[in-house]
């Protein structure tokens, strides 16, 4: 999966504004932010999305809510509230096929998940 954009970011072959990293996960600012805080949290190991979890990526992904909460606190949006979501497949609008969760906050995000 050497051509995968987010694999390249995880390997530091493409620059990104990293906000968190551990052995299995990395988080970085979205290049086209949809909110004042818009961070992408990914497992370093490649999988396409939530429909393609392997035991390794599932174990890493299970820690993402906890990491998101930590980043939310560091980014100053814990009190205001935040949203964590992952788009899976075409109807969800997934555009990068390396599992990622969007952490969004810093403004009222609206109540609707779809239109
Ligand atoms: P998706 O649409 O797959 O749920 O989300 C992909 C996200 O990746 C989008 O929000 C998009 O702005 C972001 N993105 C695409 N290319 C890059 C990039 O090269 N660097 C960063 N930091 N974010 C990217
Ligand atoms: Zn990848």
Describe the structure.
This is Histidine triad nucleotide-binding protein. InterPro entries: Histidine_triad_CS, Histidine_triad_HIT, HIT-like, HIT-like_sf. One of its GO terms (molecular function) is catalytic activity. Pfam families: HIT. There is one protein chain. The N and C termini lie far apart (34 Å). The protein is of the alpha+beta class. Strands 1-2-3-5-4 form a 5-stranded antiparallel sheet. The protein has one domain: HIT family, subunit A. The chain is globular, with a radius of gyration of 14 Å. It is 21% helix and 22% strand. The mean pLDDT is 96. The structure holds guanosine-5'-monophosphate (5GP) and zinc ion. Guanosine-5'-monophosphate binds next to strand 2. Zinc ion binds next to helix 1.
List the helices and strands and how they pair.
Blueprint: H1 5-10, E1 18-21, E2 25-29, E3 37-43, H2 55-61, H3 64-74, E4 82-85, E5 101-105
Antiparallel strand pairs: 1-2, 2-3, 3-5, 4-5
The structure holds guanosine-5'-monophosphate (5GP) and zinc ion.
């Amino acid at each position: 999966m050497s051509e995968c954009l987010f694999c390249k970011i995880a390997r530091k072959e493409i620059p990104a504004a990293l906000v968190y990293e551990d052995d299995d996960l990395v988080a970085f600012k979205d290049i086209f932010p949809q909110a004042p805080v818009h961070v992408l949290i990914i497992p370093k190991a490649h999988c396409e999305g939530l429909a393609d979890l392997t035991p390794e990526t599932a174990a890493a992904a299970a820690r993402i809510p906890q990491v998101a909460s930590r980043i939310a606190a560091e980014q100053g949006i814990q009190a205001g509230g935040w949203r964590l979501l992952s788009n899976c497949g075409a109807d969800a609008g997934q555009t990068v096929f390396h599992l990622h969760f969007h952490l969004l906050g810093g403004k009222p995000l609206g109540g609707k998940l779809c239109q």
